[in-house]
Structure formats: structure tokens, C-alpha cells
UniProtKB/TrEMBL annotation:
It comes from Microbacterium thalassium. [4Fe-4S] cluster binds at residues 46, 69, 72, 78. It comes from the Bacteria. Keywords: 4Fe-4S, Cytoplasm, Disulfide bond, DNA-binding, Iron, Iron-sulfur, Metal-binding, Transcription, Transcription regulation. GO terms for cellular component: cytoplasm. It is found in: Cytoplasm. This is Transcriptional regulator WhiB.
């Protein structure tokens, strides 16, 4: 897949963990606390790959990212997070922005 198909820049805040950054209002995870909404990101397969594939240019291919998502152990958690937080850009849980919007419409 040609790199030119992808967005020139991956958003700086992609996969930013507000817990680790100490964002006001976001609780820090206590040792032994399993209630971390972003804990699933430690098993994110995309974190081990090229993030550019997950933020293709408009009209660019999403195939590579979706293939990675299909093997990801935290796909469900990722999709839930994206839907709950209204993530507008990129591939999350194997779905594009348009596919997530469609899923939300059908769910409501
Ligand atoms: S489902 Fe895809 S976008 Fe989500 S964590 Fe896994 S590889 Fe990353």
C-alpha cells in the first residue's frame, strides 16, 4: 500500500491516554484498579503497527487497518470506546467513521 494514500499526519492525540497525562477530571488508575476505561489499549494491535494506516486520507484505503483490527483481541472494547466517545476520525474497532455513524443510527 502506497504511503501517499494516507493522511500526511496522524493526529497528535491519537491513542493519548488522558489518565496517564493527568487530565483534570480524569481519575488516575490506582494499583490493582481494573476500572480503567482505557486499559484495553495496552493490548491494541495497532499500537505495534504504523498508525498512518488507521487515519487514511479521504477516499484512501482502509483495508490494511481493517485487516489488523480483524486480528485484534480488543476490537470490541475499541469499538465501544469509539462509539461512547464519538470518535470522528480514523478506524476504530475495525470500522470507519462512516460505518460507525451508520451503526449508531441503526442502534438508536
Ligand atoms: S480494533 Fe483496530 S483500532 Fe482498535 S485497538 Fe485493535 S487494532 Fe487498534
Amino acid at each position: 500500500m502506497a504511503a501517499a494514500q494516507y493522511r500526511s499526519g496522524v493526529p497528535d492525540n491519537w491513542f493519548v491516554d488522558p489518565v496517564q497525562l493527568g487530565v483534570p477530571g480524569v481519575r488516575r488508575q490506582a494499583p490493582g484498579d481494573d476500572d480503567n476505561a482505557l486499559a484495553w489499549q495496552t493490548d491494541a494491535l495497532c499500537a505495534q503497527t504504523d498508525p498512518e494506516a488507521f487515519f487514511p486520507e479521504k477516499g484512501g484505503s482502509t483495508r490494511d487497518a481493517k485487516r489488523i483490527c480483524s486480528s485484534c483481541d480488543v476490537r470490541g472494547e475499541c469499538l465501544d470506546y469509539a462509539l461512547e466517545n464519538d470518535e470522528r476520525f480514523g478506524i476504530w474497532g475495525g470500522l470507519s467513521e462512516r460505518e460507525r455513524r451508520k451503526l449508531k443510527r441503526h442502534a438508536s
